[in-house]
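subagent[fold] <- orchestrator: predict structure for attached chain, return C-alpha cells only, no commentary.
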Amino acid sequence: MMKASLKGKYEVEKGSAAATLTIPAAGDAKLRATFTDATFSKGPSLDGLSLSLDKSGSFIIDYNVPKNDFRFQFMNTIRVFEKPVNLTYIHFRGANRTTLDGSVVFDPANKVSASYAFGGGAKVKYVYSHGGGGGRSSRAMIPRKIRGFLQSRTRFMRRML
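subagent[fold] -> orchestrator:
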C-alpha cells in the first residue's frame, strides 16, 4: 500500500499559494513535487514547479523545473572525541556555488559552527546559552586575503622548523 501526503498553504497578505505532494520512493527516500500558484494561475505551466528526492538526514536532490537547475545537499554526522559533528555539503549547479557547513555541540550550553563557501569567505560562530533561555553569540568572518596570509604564514613556519 502506497501512502502519499498533500500539504497546502495560502498566504492572504501576499495572495500566493503553494502545495507539496510527497510520495514514498524506494526504501525510506521520498519524492516531492512542489507547486506554487504560478503553476496554475495562467493555465498549466512549469513555472513554480520543483521536484526533489530526499532521504531525511542523508541527502536532498532538488530540481527547479523552470530554471532547469539542480541543488545537491549531502548530510552526515561523525563522532570526534565522543561529540557528534554535523557536516553538510551543498552544491548549486546553476550558480556554480559550493558550501561546506559543520557544527559541534560540546554540551547543552556550548555550540560551534563553521561555514565555508568555495571562492568566498569562511564564517565561524560560537553560541553560549545560559540556563534561563538567554545566551550570547560571537561570529567571525574570515576573508579570503587573511586566510591566504594565514596559510602562507603556516607553511613558512613549518619550513623554519
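orchestrator: received. Logging for downstream: Residues 109 and 131 are 8 Å apart (CA to CA). Residues 149-161 have pLDDT under 50 and may be disordered.
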